[in-house]
Amino acid sequence: MNPILTVWRVLAVAALLSALPAAAAEQVTVERDTVLYAEPRIDSSQVAQLKQGTTGEVVAKSGVWLNIRTQSATGWLFSFHVRFPSQQPSQSGEGSALGRLFAPRRTNVGVTSTIGIRGLDEEDLRQARFNADQMRLLDGYAAGREAAQSQARESGLDAVRVDYLGASTQ
């Protein structure tokens, strides 16, 4: 094996590993009151309730979730609920790596954050299996015609006839 190539590989790995602790120890500030979860899942147990302005340290990342450590607790929250200290790098190229990743989020402009939802791919469809329990649960959410009409009336909604697109208007 080429010794120069080996040296370059070792240097590249060392550079990557040395950058990880710096990114993982990034300071953040909670932008709005939010829940801190035990795992990066909305259905996991709640560890704490964080108030706006709470500061913490990022210790891990999983998708749109951040694992942060505060003075009172450690847990997971949505990355959109925090602000990184250096979200707009200066002209000299300074600024935090995670701050640049989640930018732009400046306080002097209105910015809307969104989360992309991944669709199904072929592998998901191949692995899909029927789950009778989930179907029964889904059926439990169904409303009959009378119940739906009653709810609509109680909410002040009126029935309106809507023609199909492209239907003639004779």
What does this structure look like?
The protein is of the alpha+beta class and 170 residues long. It has helices at residues 3-24, 97-102, 122-127, 132-140, 145-154, and strands at residues 27-30, 34-37, 46-50, 55-62, 65-69, 74-78, 82-83. It has a 5-stranded antiparallel beta sheet, with no helix packed on it. Strands 2-3 form a two-stranded antiparallel ribbon. Strand 2 (34-37) and strand 3 (46-50) form a beta hairpin.
Give the structure's gist in a few sentences.
By secondary structure, the protein is α+β, with helices and mostly antiparallel strands. It has 5 helices and 7 strands, in the order αβββββββαααα.
Summary keywords:
170 residues, SH3 type barrels, 5-stranded antiparallel β-sheet, two-stranded antiparallel sheet, extended
For the largest sheet, list the strands in their spatial order.
6-5-4-1-7
The helical percent reads 25-40%
Looking at the structure, the CATH topology of the domain at 21-102 is: SH3 type barrels
Q: Separation of termini?
A: 81 Å
- β-strand percent reads 15-25%
Count of DSSP-assigned helices: 5
Count of individual beta strands? 7
Please summarize the sheet with the most strands: 5 strands, antiparallel
Q: What is the CATH C-level name of the domain at 21-102?
A: Mainly Beta
User: In terms of structural class, how would the helical and strand content be classed?
Assistant: alpha+beta
